[in-house]
Amino acid sequence: MDSFVSEPRPASYETLSNNVLKRERRARERQVREEEKKKVTTNKIPENQRQQVANDDTMDPTQFLSNRIKSLALLKESGVNPYPHKFDISMSITEFIDKYRSLHVGEHVENTEISLAGRILNKRSSSSKLYFYDLHGNGAKIQVMADARHSDMDENEFCKYHSGVKRGDIVGICGFPGKSQRGELSIFPRSLVVLTPCLHMLPRHAITSNSDEAQSKKKTRNHSWTPGITRNPETYILRDQETRYRQRYLDLMLNSEVQKIFRTRAKIISYSRDFLDNLGFIEVETPAMTMTVGGAAARPFITHHNELDMKLYMRISPELYLKKLVVGGLDRVYEIGKVFRNEGMNLTHLPEFTMFEFYMAYADYNDLMDIIEKLLSGMVKELTGSHKIKYHGNGFDSEPVEIDFTPPFRRIDLIEELESRANLSIPKDLSSETANKFLLEACEKFDVKCPAPHTTTRLLDKLVGHFLEETCINPTFIINHPEIMSPLAKWHRSKPGLTERFELFVNKRELCNAYTELNDPQVQRQRFAEQLKDRQLGDDEAMVLDESFCSCLEYGLPPTAGLGMGIDRLAMLLTDSPNVKEVILFPAMKPQD
């Protein structure tokens, strides 16, 4: 056996052998790298297509539109309809997320066929065989991971088709669910078809540097808005207010937070409707065009009925019609609808707005204070998870205020609190010239501006706004208004000259107006006559006599209480919107030149 034992090799021979092995290993590694390089080169997007993708973001919008129109024309000439009539979906994007969110990282369910549809708002790729899209629909988003290996198309068709898909296009996808290696829930298409092409170039985030881009992504990732908390408009893609309000479809498409705002508004209306339905109320509809103006102190819009050849008014309130229904035996009624008041526009009021009004037989204003406390506190708790909300009442540049809807709400007596805060002794007979002179001097003393005409009602209203409304951050009932300010409210049962009326103020703005209803027809006619005096002095917002309503009262209105609440202002509070146009889908705007 010893003859078969090799002699020890010289050290130089062993070193030489190791060097040879190292060279061979390096050669193999170079070969592998070259092969990978060839694969990458083969998979790269062709130069002309890569240039086209890059140009999409830098191209002039007019040229982009022209190019898309031309490409659609070519499709039509070839017999392809670029606007399919129908696409069957098996589930919504929201349902897809709920069903498959529990998949493991890298897990694919290839034996499941899913069809989804939505709008593409982001597209990215570095390879002709792999495209990533962000698919949006119904307020939700998922990733589309289009891989040529899973497609029904061959590689050339795949590359050509996907290079023509643009941001904004609405697409239909058939594929299987899974999660990427990074853990992002995705759909992997076997087929993807453009259902509706977007002809215009969509805006992107305005980024000026890499640091700005990182900061923007961080803000977007960390801020997910829900009702009751402050909003972050800095994360919006489309920020120009004029464009957002005039082209609300773009606002909804690009700014996901805006969809949440209007979903919240819808929930406010649904909650209010359900609340009253559960109390035995029925919802009704009353005329939007009327022969007389009534139910509120406001200037109306005037229109003309061609068939009847008569002037009609757009309603400023549904109040008188609703009370007629109570006379007819519908003891609990409500209406949610548009009213129109031809008056000023500001951050909290537009001439066309949504009013929520209800009337309840055999109740008074004390009952309504309890009801509206329960409705609002319950609504805020339901939608936000708390009784406290944050609100940028003075704009997004200022610090938000905290508003607490925890019941019971604060209550202050109008005359008593005004006299206390202003150190005044207001004459008891507010219909007298003495009272009018006293209030005019008080306005001058405290530099409270009141445009003409200087009726007692207007002077008193301005003083209340100056001294009382400014203190109402949390929900506050201002109660027991004078008769002169409340022509439709019933006189107070224990305080002469006052009425059983309240206004609910939140963040210094009126949200609700309510009272025990006046049901004595003789007193109602007298109140209308007193309003006529103010109208003759130049107050074109004073109420006019509605004889049909007075005649209705003669048949008997039971003891009743009614309340009106502005839906728009409530939506502003719960969506942190300092501008009322933020909560109206298509607000009135001056025409563009």
From TrEMBL:
InterPro entries xrefs: Aa-tRNA-synt_II, aa-tRNA-synth_II, aa-tRNA-synth_II/BPL/LPL, Lys-tRNA-ligase_II, Lys-tRNA-ligase_II_bac/euk, Lys-tRNA-ligase_II_N, Lys-tRNA-synth_II_C, NA-bd_OB-fold
Domain Aminoacyl-transfer RNA synthetases class-II family profile: 262-591
Residue numbers spanned by region Disordered: 1-49, 209-228
Annotated catalysed reactions: tRNA(Lys) + L-lysine + ATP = L-lysyl-tRNA(Lys) + AMP + diphosphate
Gene Ontology CC: one annotated term: cytosol
Start-end of Basic and acidic residues biased regions: 26-39
GO annotation, biological process: lysyl-tRNA aminoacylation
Main localization of the protein described in the UniProt heading: cytoplasm
Pfam families linked: tRNA-synt_2, tRNA_anti-codon
Enzyme class: ligase
The enzyme's E.C. designation: 6.1.1.6
Keywords on record: Aminoacyl-tRNA synthetase, ATP-binding, Cytoplasm, Ligase, Nucleotide-binding, Protein biosynthesis
Keyword Ligase recorded: yes
Gene3D superfamilies documented for this protein: Bira Bifunctional Protein, Domain 2 (3.30.930.10), Nucleic acid-binding proteins (2.40.50.140)
Single GO molecular function: tRNA binding
Compartments, as annotated in UniProt: Cytoplasm
Matches recorded under HAMAP family: Lys_tRNA_synth_class2 (MF_00252)
Entry's family note: Belongs to the class-II aminoacyl-tRNA synthetase family.
NCBIfam families registered for this protein in UniProt: lysS_bact, PRK00484.1
Protein name (Swiss-Prot/TrEMBL): Lysine--tRNA ligase
